[in-house]
Amino acid sequence: MQITEIFKSIQGESSYAGLPCIFVRLTGCNLRCTWCDSEYSFYGGRKMSPDEVFTEIERLGGKLVEITGGEPLLQEREVVPFMQRLLQAGYRVLLETSGERSLAKVPSDVVKIVDVKCPDSGEPDSFRMENLESLGPRDEVKFVISSRADYEFARKFSQTHQLEQRVHNLLFSPAFRQDASGGRDTSHCLLDPRELAEWMLADNIPARFGFQIHKFIWDPAMKGV
Ligand code: SF4
């Protein structure tokens, strides 16, 4: 597998937010979201065998692992059996994916945290619609929102496809500025979180409001956290 980094941190998003978690960040992505905070994972990295990655996970310690990127499913042939191996070894496995790649081969015990890209991401219509059929009661769908237009898209998409009934957790999260650095506060959000929260309350949106909490613990520009 081509790996950008493996590290232990606090899970920043999803219903696992706040828990210690080992992150395996795979190299490469076929999308170019305007607010992407992991562009450094697009190129480079180093080749590691599944055994080497597994050994590093064991060395770091803990039982929660997130496979992320980049887009990890670009390396589906290797990453699917690797996730299976982690499950068999007793790990809880989370997979963070853009929603553009097919989820059909992902083991059903993996918790899929799937983006649906909103218009202002610069990657509208990238969600693979047949992935809706691969979502189950342990999975999570995330909308990263940077404008009212994004919010309206997320609201309508969730309602049209009854996402609340399909998945465990529906997440609406304000986008962070790509160049965010310095203060660990909401001034780096592209959309005022208060506005997003008030829209959600006004419309009775059955979604969880989400912050990337690692960006409030460490400098938002810091890698490997
Ligand atoms: S899919 Fe993820 S890694 Fe790829 S460009 Fe978008 S935010 Fe960045």
Summarize this structure as a short list of keywords or feature phrases.
6 helices, alpha/beta, 24% helix, TIM Barrel, binds iron/sulfur cluster, 225 residues
What does this entry look like structurally?
It contains 6 helices and 9 strands. Helices cover 24% and strands 21% of the residues. By secondary structure, the chain is of the alpha/beta class. It has one domain: Aldolase class I (TIM Barrel, Alpha-Beta Barrel). It has a 9-stranded mixed β-sheet, covered by helices on one side. The longest helix is centred in the middle third of the chain and has 13 residues, at 76-88. The chain binds iron/sulfur cluster. Iron/sulfur cluster is lined by residues 29, 31-33, 36, 38, 69-71, 98.
